[in-house]
Amino acid sequence: LGILFVLIGFAFKVSAVPFHTWAPDTYEGAPTPVTAFLAVASKAAGMVALIQLVFVAFLGRDDVVQPFFWLISALTMTVGNLIALRQTNIVRLLAYSGIAQGGFMLVPFAVAADAPARAIEAVVIYLAIYAFMNLGAFTVVLAVARKTRSGEIDSYAGLFQYAPGLAVAMTVFLAALAGIPPAGGWFAKFGLFRALLDAGGGWAAGLAVIVAVNTVIAFAYYGRVLTQMWFQPAADGDEQPIVVTGALGAALTITLLATLAFGVLPGLVGHFGEVSVLSALGG
Question: What is the pTM of this model?
């Protein structure tokens, strides 16, 4: 019971369902830079702590850990994606997308006992790639909001016509979040399936199906943003270019290059995952 309560505490930290309700309103109400920080830093801290707990402190307690993470990851992926489908505000959409992404990151913990090395590697790789693609998406949101003064998805209509660079960057980040090559998110998803395949068994197979279905669901709401940017006319015919400041430009460049590099050269982040395995398992 004590182990379960500790895991629930960290589930709240990473916005796992049903402990996620604080995240969307907090993200929408906070300034965008703060939201970006919360979306990445809070989740990263929680995931790193869970690695230490599951693979070190709770080692051998897969009777509790495995069913807990199977259920919590499946719920978090599915609920996050389904609610994201209904969002009309880009920040809330990214908030629920972040919840779903957290669900994906929790998947390897469900097979921690059967494939520990692959599981740790999958979590670390996913977290590293997620940090760049999510921060990049919020950077675009911040740049666009300075012109439109709106967070509605409709305000992205015609973005390619007056800010093609931002439209292309957002396309890369959303493709990464969806797991579409060559953006880095595909390698993050690949790591999940590799861990599940190595684990084998009914638990892993069932979770693999849920991951696949949720990956497809995510295409729908990311695609809605892309449709607005590429195929809709600009609102009120306003095609005045967006001026990107030096700081935003630097952040955008770094996150965009990293997101693409991790997809084209996955060994860059794969090596980081291998080092993390050696550190966590002492091998």
Answer: 0.91
